[in-house]
Specification:
The structure holds three protein chains of three kinds.
Chain A: H1 2-7, H2 9-26, H3 28-31, H4 63-99, H5 101-115, H6 119-130, H7 134-161, H8 164-171, H9 176-212, H10 224-231, H11 240-267, H12 269-272
Helix pairs in contact in A: 2-4, 2-11, 4-5, 4-7, 4-9, 4-11, 5-7, 6-7, 7-9, 9-10, 9-11, 10-11
Chain B: E1 3-14, E2 19-30, E3 34-38, H1 45-52, E4 61-69, E5 72-73, H2 79-85, E6 90-93, H3 107-118, H4 123-136, H5 142-146, H6 155-167, E7 173-177, H7 185-200, E8 204-209, H8 212-218, E9 221-226, E10 229-235, H9 236-241, H10 246-263
Parallel strand pairs in B: 3-8, 3-9, 6-7, 7-8
Antiparallel strand pairs in B: 1-2, 1-4, 4-5, 9-10
Chain C: H1 2-28, H2 34-42, H3 48-57, H4 64-76, H5 90-125, H6 130-144, H7 147-161, H8 177-203, H9 206-213, H10 218-256, H11 261-271, H12 274-302, H13 305-309
Helix pairs in contact in C: 1-12, 2-3, 5-6, 5-8, 5-10, 5-12, 6-8, 7-8, 7-10, 8-10, 10-11, 10-12, 11-12
Classes of the chains: A mainly alpha, B alpha/beta, C mainly alpha.
Chain lengths: 274, 264, 315
């Protein structure tokens, strides 16, 4: 399977995009030619040249540097949030599937109740109630979305648990924790990577749409969605200020989606059969 | 006696590297006779019979050679032509009746659909002749059967419906692909009896089986396949009385042992 | 069959109950003291005992479950409180804004419906063809594109560069074409991916082989049997996405300056207009639950086997 992965062009393109954006995020201060927050009132809406590779924005800040730093915000928020979601999902999902019985039923009821609220609605109502900090938005995102991950993982873990080898290892005297950690989790890991990868893409879109709506970041933060929001008033005169940040969001989420979807194709049985 | 079906130099490979699954297989099926293709699973017998009806996915399988029904070449025939033959002149009885029907559509509708695919007939008439066909198979409460979903019926019941459906257009050839494998002993005997009846009525049978008992009961001629090749062929007497290949002997022994266990 | 319906109904009641509890809790989570907020709204500088009086009058001194019962009672009578922002009753505001969003979502669902079924089926049937690869690329682009950005691109292309549509154009169906497309494209893209996979797995099923052997034409097999068998999982998702779109319309309404429930909710969030937020949340959640019932009913018609096979999740 590893060979198949390396041969798959789509996976490679996805990985390359992910690596590209991550490198930019990590080395942002080294790559960016200017301070992303330096306001230069005399040089508003400059077009691209010399000092400013992509020109300046409505406050005379270097667009290129802001885009570079934007990668930090997008990845820096989406990746840890998704790891939190994934860990919670893995813990609750495998536990529910392994223990089964009444606990699993309660778990499913909780899932159904949470899933009756579109995540955006929960986030909006929590933000409305608690105020607009970034931490509150992230907590709200986790609160609203953990069941989605837990439920999918429960399904995968349930399928795995029903297999004979789990019964065999039970008979052989393996402890529950060991079965879950040594057998169930490693076997559903590929599916989990797919969920995590496409989930990061979805989260990047979600967080950027929050900041586009003016939720979450302080004014002036070089986050792509926020940049787009600030540039919208000058959209018709300077469309590039809207185009660039959107393109960055698209490339980043496309990287994770390309990788995740290609991996899904490789591991899903109906693609491979016949 | 005319040759109804003539398969010559049939080769089937798995794409993209055309890994060979069936190698240079030739046989003929004459009017009113029956031929059993015997072999273990993976010997290529099911693939061979699927290729006759163009049931293999052309994107996955590379088929070459020739398959003729009377004078017509089937391998190169277009989709429309082959579907017109299938289910009318050449009918099939499948291995697993439980999954053979669309689970979301009532039996009656699937029978009507089959009839309407082959003849100009009104829905109402098709429904009536569907009931008639089921009654011929001695099925109970046929109206009710027509109105039930496949998953509510037993495997034996469904296999009888499939047999009824295969006879509905008075075919020349019936291909039975492991038709008894997934059934219990009682239903196995029922299916064997029906196949015997077909043979008496002059329908040519192509039996695909791993069970020499089935071959012994129904076949005039037998071919033995292994790893995609025909390793032995002859009349049913030749094969049973004096098998040449060690592999055939093994298979025979295994079948007889199994039979013995079943009957007692 | 009846057992199944009973199970689903019990399930529904439990979920509806949970939804109201969660809505209630979400509306009570705010650190702002509602009695004080209310007092400040009607009086300039309320005395502490005046606030206490209001607290008693609003029933805020009661235990939480008692408050919940009172709240449910008010909701059932259609009283969701009144907006801090517009001063109107919340349900009046919602009734004003919801139809526009419903119309937008309905058109978006129409786009989704006419696109994903044929595209998904054709790319599954012609797996690995040029068409399939092309669609795969477009679909991944579709799920990766930020919808607000797509909205601006559309505005830029179709309203500025090639003025097919007016930039600001209210009150007719044509004005909803671009926004509904923006709303539809991400969902349609993910549906195409999912539906293609479902159709592919169905194409490999025994019933397809036997249908061919019976002489049924491949068109009829694909567009009749395979389609019918592939729909149930996507029907559930389809109605789920209806709920998402009601909420997700905020982004699109913001880009296209449409006055719908999404933007209304967003304004309420920015202004911390709690009664409006809670009202919108409850209404959207209830619409969401009703949609899932509709999805269940359609699936029961499409595949009667569900009613027999599916294990009761909980009773």
């Amino acid at each position: 399977m590893n060979k198949a992965l390396l041969k798959n062009k789509q996976i490679l393109i996805g990985l390359a995009l992910i690596l590209f954006v991550s490198t930019i995020a990590v080395f942002a201060p080294l790559i960016a030619p200017n301070d992303p927050n330096k306001i230069d009132a005399l040089n508003k809406f400059l077009s691209a040249k010399g000092e400013y590779p992509l020109g300046t924005d409505q406050l005379g800040r270097c667009v290129f540097s802001r885009l570079i730093f934007g990668a930090r915000y997008s990845l820096g928020i989406a990746v840890p949030t998704l790891l939190a979601l994934g860990t919670m999902g893995l813990a609750f999902g495998t536990a529910a599937a392994y223990i089964g019985g009444r606990l699993e039923r309660v778990f499913l009821i909780v899932c159904d109740i949470f899933m009756a609220f579109p995540p955006l609605i929960i986030v909006l109502s929590l933000v409305g109630a608690l105020g607009q900090g970034l931490e509150i938005i992230l907590a709200a995102v986790i609160f609203s979305m953990w069941v989605w991950y837990a439920k999918v993982i429960r399904t995968y873990a349930g399928i795995e648990r029903a297999k004979d080898y789990i019964l065999a290892s039970k008979i052989a005297g393996c402890s529950g924790l060991r079965i879950v950690s040594r057998h169930i989790i490693p076997n559903i890991l590929p599916q989990c990577i797919v969920i995590v990868s496409t989930g990061i893409a979805a989260l990047i879109l979600m967080v950027s749409s929050f900041s586009f709506l003016g939720l979450g970041f302080e004014a002036g933060t070089p986050e792509w969605g926020a940049m787009l929001n600030q540039a919208r008033s000058s959209f018709y005169s300077h469309p590039r200020l809207v185009i660039y940040p959107g393109l960055c969001i698209l490339l980043t989420s496309a990287g994770f989606n390309l990788f995740g979807e290609a991996l899904r194709d490789v591991i899903s049985p109906e693609e491979a059969s016949e | 006696m005319t040759e109804l079906l003539k398969v010559s130099k049939l080769c089937i490979g798995l794409k993209p590297q055309t890994f060979p699954i069936v190698k240079n297989v030739s046989f003929a099926l004459r009017e009113g006779t029956s031929l059993a293709v015997v072999g273990e699973s993976g010997s290529g017998k099911t693939i061979t019979c699927k290729s006759i009806m163009q049931l293999l996915n052309p994107k996955t399988f590379q088929v070459s050679g020739s398959i003729r029904y009377r004078k017509t070449e089937l391998l190169t025939m277009d989709e429309k032509g082959i579907r017109a033959l299938c289910g009318s002149k050449i009918a099939m009885i499948v291995q697993n009746p439980m999954t053979a029907f669309d689970p979301t559509v009532k039996i009656g509708a699937q029978i009507v659909e089959t009839l309407m695919a082959h003849q100009r007939i009104s829905k109402r008439d098709a429904y009536a002749s569907g009931i008639l066909a089921l009654q011929k198979m001695n099925l109970p409460r046929c109206e009710q059967l027509m109105d039930s979903y496949p998953y509510t019926l037993s495997g034996g019941m469904l296999q009888r419906i499939i047999i009824a459906l295969s006879l509905i257009h008075e075919p020349d050839i019936i291909i039975a692909d492991e038709a008894t494998t997934s059934l219990d002993v009682k239903n196995q005997n029922m299916v064997l009896d029906e196949l015997e009846k077909m043979k008496r009525n002059g329908i040519a049978l192509l039996l695909v089986t791993h069970d020499f008992g089935v071959a012994a009961k129904l076949a005039d001629n037998v071919i033995v396949m292994r790893e995609g090749k025909i390793i032995e062929r002859g009349t049913v007497y030749d094969i049973f009385e004096s098998p040449r290949e060690a592999y055939t002997k093994e298979l025979l022994k295994a079948s007889i042992l199994k039979r013995g266990n079943c009957i007692d | 069959m009846f057992r199944y319906i009973r199970k689903r109904l019990t399930n529904l009641i439990v979920v509806l109950f949970g939804v109201t509890v969660l809505s209630f809790l979400l509306s009570n989570i705010s650190p702002v003291d509602p009695a004080e907020a209310y007092a400040r709204r009607i009086l300039k500088s309320p005395a502490p005992q005046k606030i206490e009086e209001i607290r008693l009058k609003m029933g805020l001194d009661l235990p939480l479950y008692q408050q919940y019962i009172n709240w449910i009672g008010r909701c059932l009578r259609g009283d969701l409180g009144s907006s801090l922002l517009t001063k109107n009753p919340v349900n009046y505001d919602i009734a004003q804004k919801l139809p526009a969003t419903m119309q937008l979502v309905a058109i978006a669902l129409f786009w989704i419906l006419i696109s994903f079924i044929p595209i998904g089926i054709i790319s599954a049937v012609r797996k690995n063809s040029l068409f399939d690869h092309l669609i795969k690329g477009v679909a991944i682009l579709g799920i990766s594109i930020p919808s607000f950005w797509l909205g601006f691109l559309f505005l830029f292309i179709f309203a500025v560069t090639f003025p097919v549509f007016k930039v600001i154009d209210y009150g007719n169906i044509k004005s909803l074409i671009l926004p509904s497309l923006v709303l539809a494209i991400p969902t349609a893209s993910s549906f195409v991916r999912l539906f293609r996979a479902t159709v592919l797995s169905n194409l490999n099923k025994d019933y397809v082989v036997y249908a061919k052997a019976r002489g049924i034409s491949s068109n009829r097999i694909v567009w009749g049997h395979v389609l019918k068998n592939s729909l149930p999982p996507i029907v559930t998702l389809f109605f789920q996405h209806l709920g998402y779109m009601l909420a997700g319309s905020a982004v699109v309404e913001s880009v296209f300056s449409l006055k719908g429930i999404g933007l209304h909710l967003l304004n309420a969030v920015t202004a911390r207009d709690l009664p409006t937020i809670n009202g919108c949340v409850l209404v959207i959640a209830i619409i969401f639950v009703l949609c899932s019932i509709l999805a269940d009913v359609i699936n029961m018609v499409l595949n009667p086997r569900i009613t027999d096979k599916e294990e009761g999740l909980y009773e």
